[in-house]
Amino acid sequence: MSVESKLCTSKIKKSLVPCAYNDNALKAGFGFISEPGIPHLTIDSQSGNGDGMTHLLYTLAHQLTNQNENILVAQAERIFSCNLIQHRDMKKLFDVNWLLIDDVNFLLGKQEAFINPIFDMLAARNKTGKKTLYTLAIAADELNKLMPDKHMDFLYASAQCRLEIPSLADKLKIGQFICSQLAFAPDPQTLTSFVNESGNIRQLENLLNRYNAEQRLNNCQR
Q: What CATH number has the domain bearing residue 65?
């Protein structure tokens, strides 16, 4: 089985809803794509998880595919589970022009014998002009607790950007987009209730998906 089939998404699509909270990160991402002298970009989040880092990564991947770039999108957890340091496909991670790794924090804290070869490979990519993009799902106020750490130092040695905390207006805009994708329209009061209840974008998406499924089930039972 190839590294592509084990590690990569089969569909890359633009999925980020542009909002005030992600505007700076989105601009930084597109700037990274257009600037050949920056070897890697690390995307983190003020809250740490659930506010669209993966959506941002996929939006940038979509842009790269539109530019006909040679890219590979991988989940750090799958890199770990595939034990690629013992696999010939490790070389494919090195060779690809654009490597996008989601949730790279999954590799942190693992046995040095495993993660050192991976970070050595990533450092070697930087020296050969290849480009790498990471998402790091650790809250901003937790980052300092992980320092000093040679792998964290590496991740933050090049460009970086941060998703801020979405406002209620941001979440409402995203909620409306999710509803349009699901092809249903909850009444404004229900949507506002979900926006207020959700702690982050992922929770909002889960609430709307569940509500949509319940509504469809109720309609089928009538």
A: 3.40.50.300
Range of the domain at 194: 168-221
Residues with Cβ within 8 Å of residue 3, at least 6 apart in sequence:
72, 74, 82, 84, 87, 89, 90, 92, 93
pLDDT interval class at 219 (50, 70, 90): confident
32 and 128 within one domain: yes
How many domains does the chain divide into? Answer: 2
139: amino acid identity, one letter: A
Rg of the chain over CA atoms, in angstroms? 19
- Round to whole Å and give the CA distance between 132 and 40: 5
Q: What is the pLDDT of residues 49-74, one digit of tens each?
A: 899 999 999 999 999 999 999 999 99
DSSP letter for each residue of 68-128: T--EEEEEHHHHHHTTGGGSTTHHHHHHSSEEEEE-GGGGTTS-HHHHHHHHHHHHHHHHT
- My answer on whether 157 and 192 are in the same domain is no
**Are 83 and 185 contained in the same domain?**
no
Paired strand residues for 133: 41, 100
Considering the domain architecture, whether residues 145 and 203 belong to the same structural domain is answered as no
Taking alpha carbons only, the member of 175, 203, 161 closest to residue 57 is 161
Q: What is the mean pLDDT of residues 177-206?
A: 93
Q: What is the pTM of this model?
A: 0.86
Q: Element (H or E) spanning 131, and its range?
A: strand 131-139
Q: Are 58 and 14 contained in the same domain?
A: yes
